[in-house]
Structure to design on (198 residues):
């Protein structure tokens, strides 16, 4: 048993702009009736915030199937700040990263032979991400071409993302594809979409 969530991560917003964009997005979602301004910590298990916005009267407009009348979704947590986000339960590292300069894929977790990260390979990424979270700047070297690439430019596996703004939908039915597309367009940036379990 556990609690399921879906997360939308803005991959491009700056740390300086994230708070303002979060507020505009919350205002829009309240106006659409998807959430309310009331907040609650019930059933919010985010690693970064303790509360989220209670669903609004028209929350069903965001999901693919709202046919179960007994389903009561949980809050939507808004995470502002530079963080790494992972979709899998117990996952902390990316399985791989692709260099945007030379397109080489660096394998961090060699599935199915390994289920944990190769520490020597992951360390430069981990250090670059820690620096980015703290200062807004961090890079990791590509072992193939030698370029020091900002960690926000590496292309990560689908279940791993770096971003300064995220929205976590706790206990909602699966979000509709058209809602995800619209949400990304309204943010004005590329997004990552995670499904996970706590």
């Amino acid at each position: 048993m556990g609690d399921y969530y879906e997360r939308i991560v803005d991959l491009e917003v700056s740390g300086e702009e994230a708070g303002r964009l979060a507020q505009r997005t919350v205002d829009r979602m309240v106006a659409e009736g998807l959430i309310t301004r009331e907040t609650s910590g019930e059933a919010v298990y985010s690693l970064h915030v303790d509360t989220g916005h209670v669903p609004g009267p028209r929350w069903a407009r965001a999901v693919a199937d709202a046919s179960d009348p007994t389903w009561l979704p949980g809050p939507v947590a808004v995470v502002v700040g530079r963080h790494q986000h992972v979709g899998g339960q117990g996952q902390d590292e990316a399985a791989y990263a692709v260099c945007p300069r030379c397109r080489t894929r660096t394998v961090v977790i060699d599935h199915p032979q390994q289920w944990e990260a190769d520490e020597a390979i992951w360390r430069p990424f981990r250090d670059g991400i820690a620096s980015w979270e703290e200062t807004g700047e961090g890079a990791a070297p590509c072992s193939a071409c030698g370029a020091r690439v900002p960690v926000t430019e590496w292309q990560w596996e689908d279940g791993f993302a770096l971003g300064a703004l995220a929205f976590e939908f706790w206990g909602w039915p699966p979000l509709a594809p058209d809602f995800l597309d619209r949400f990304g367009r309204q943010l004005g940036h590329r997004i990552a979409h995670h499904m996970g379990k706590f």
In short: The longest strand covers residues 76-86. The mean pLDDT is 94. Residues 15-31 form the longest helix (17 residues).
